[in-house]
Amino acid sequence: MAHQVTVMTRNGCSSCVKAEQDVERICGELGVPWTTADVDSDPEWRAEYGDRVPVILVDDAEHGYWSVDEQRLRAALS
């Protein structure tokens, strides 16, 4: 099964920028598609993730937040 990673982010979030860079590098190495989604674009996302961005989702399930745990993410994607 192919995995999909989503970084829940918001404008002006420096931690989000760092998480996106980490996810881009890791997913690039592993050939896993990834995308970002702005939590402020959807009221449900803002309610769910707003205080914890960046939130990393793997296959639409919450994997982690605030930063990327590289070893854990690699394990989830391999």
TrEMBL record:
Pfam families: Glrx-like
Top-level taxon of the source organism: Bacteria
SUPFAM superfamilies, A to Z: Thioredoxin-like
InterPro entries for the chain: Glutaredoxin-like, Thioredoxin-like_sf
Name under which the protein is recorded: Glutaredoxin
UniProt organism field: Prauserella marina
